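Work Package 3 (structural annotation) set out to generate three-dimensional models for the target panel prioritized at the project kickoff. During this period the team completed the workflow that converts sequence records into discrete structure tokens, so that structures can be stored uniformly alongside our sequence database. As a representative example, we reproduce one entry of 284 residues exactly as it appears in the project archive.
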Amino acid sequence: MNKVYACIDGLASTGCVIDWAAWSALRLEAPLELLHVLERADRPLVGDFSGAMGLGAQEALLDELGALDAQRAKLAQEAGRRLMDDARTRAAAAGVERLDVRLRHGELLDNVLEMEPDARLFVLGEHYRASGAGRIHLDHHVERVIRSVKRPVLVATSAPFAQPTLFVIAYDGSPASRTTVETVARSPMLKGLPVIVAMAGDDTAQAQKQLEEAWQSLVAAGFEASMALLPGEPEDVLPAFVKARGASLLVMGAYGHSRIRQLIVGSTTTTLLRLSEVPVLILR
């Protein structure tokens, strides 16, 4: 478990995925591998036109469609190579020296699962500002990766990359959120950055106690830590709170049954990407 994998696709957030992956690799002192997967098209060009034309005409058309399909695959391969060349140049300019690229065929999730044993972090891009039918497909790619892998996943926005000046841990006092705090405390990725432990809900003695326990763990690990108890529902207060902090990163655990984790990793990743305007680091 060593490499940082940047899953790039050439769309709007690709540059930021590379930048965040480079930043993460340098912080973790880990190699960076740029991954681009050439997936099979949702709708094959070659279809069944039997009954619509004569046998000879159908055979000729199918041959022509097959040639077009092969040409499209060739163009996609060339576009992928150019994308990887540009991505390598960008990552190297960010200071990454241990750098490799991997152009694969198949499904993104299948490739990610194959590489998971050697992965320390996956970085992907969100596309909630995209339009058209492809938006849902891309968002489901991100969601499927988050739901399937047991490694941390950083979901980058398409906003220009800026090194975070602090990070916010979305906390609810559950065992999963306590594990998130413990993971952050052990990892070098966020060392040296100020942290705010934020909880949404009522100001009760139990909430204050839970926040203080998390705060103490982070202070003991050497972090400059503070607490915030935000009145209201998580979906109403957390995204705005994090956005108001400027160049920041939202950190939280994945899954569970609490309101906060259902918000961030719910039935679709689209919810997460719509509500959070800053990158999100999801820990398992």
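Residues 55-93 form the longest helix (39 residues).
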